[in-house]
Design brief:
Number of strands: 0
Number of helices: 2
CATH superfamily of one domain: Exonuclease VII, small subunit
Distance between the termini: 74 Å
Largest sheet: none
CATH class of one domain: Mainly Alpha
Structural class: mainly alpha
């Protein structure tokens, strides 16, 4: 009979900051090298989920910033530096 893993799916993070904090904690635990093999695999899987969540959050924010910026932010020209700032 195959052994069943009793790993419950982890809840989605409440925020980007919470995900980053959990990810940092997982990295610290894994770098310490004290986790058993199954716990290391579970930590790696959770870390992958958190990285995907954070990347998605950053993409959302980047899209929002692009919409808010519109054409407002433009590179400074060497001869016109400071123009348009008031």
């Amino acid at each position: 009979m195959a052994k069943k893993l009793l790993v419950e799916p982890a809840a989605a993070p409440e925020s980007f900051e919470q995900a980053m904090a959990e990810l940092a904690q997982l990295v610290t635990q894994m770098e310490a090298g004290q986790l058993p093999l199954e716990a290391s695999v579970a930590a790696y899987a959770r870390g992958s989920e958190l990285v995907r969540y954070c990347a998605a959050q950053l993409e959302k924010v980047e899209s929002q910033v692009k919409v808010l910026e519109g054409d407002m932010l433009k590179p400074f020209a060497a001869d016109g530096a400071g123009e348009g700032l008031q």
